[in-house]
Every structure is written in structure tokens, then in C-alpha cells.
Fold this sequence. Notes:
mainly beta, 2,3-Dihydroxybiphenyl 1,2-Dioxygenase, domain 1, single chain, 8-stranded mixed sheet
Amino acid sequence: MKFHHVGMVVRSVSVAEKLCRQRFNDRAPLIWGPVPAFQCAVAFSTRYPMIEFVVPEPESKLVNFLGGKSILHHIAFAVEDVRNPVPFSPADLIFDEPAVAPVQELLVNFLKPLEGLLVEVVQKPRIKS
């Protein structure tokens, strides 16, 4: 298991771009992609790939949960198998099946929150031989 990224939920694409330009001095374009299973779009910075921006769709549960605020949402760890995320247990997973995040071609799932902390597990695509 290795640290992969920190996810920040922001209100809009423009907020994500402003954070990159003004806070991180990152002028490179963000790489965006939809994650329909979680009703959001996500972007990774090309300069700082350990930062993920999440913009929920208006009907997403994230909108009500966050009350329209931008927050630090989760920390993510790369695991070998997102369905059996050692050192975690498959019983700890929120969703029965992982979602596909097309931006980095990741399979993703979340662990049931513990004391309010949300952890994401990600699996990088396997290289076909």
C-alpha cells in the first residue's frame, strides 16, 4: 500500500483552476474526466498528481453532504487489488463493485468511514503482456 493522492471537493471547475493557479502556482491545464458512478467529475494536476479535485454534479449526494463548501474530502492509497484491498478487508468497502475513474484509468472504491475519516483505495491498470 502506498499513498496515492488527497481528494478535495470543490464547488466548480473554476474553483479548482483558481486553486491551482493561485495557491500551487500551477499553470498547466487540469486533466478532467467524469466518474458517473459517483456523480462527479474529477481532475488531477499534471504538476502535482497527488492532488485530485472533485466537482460534484448538482444531484450528487456530495452536494447535500458538503453544504456547497469546498473541503478536504479523502486520502487515497494505491493497492494491488481494489476488491481485496490489503491491508484493509473487503468487508470494509462501501460499494460492491469498484468504479472506473478514466482520468488515470484507475479502479476506485471507498472504505466505510471510521470516525468520519474517508479513505479511498485505488488500483492502477494492470499492464497487459
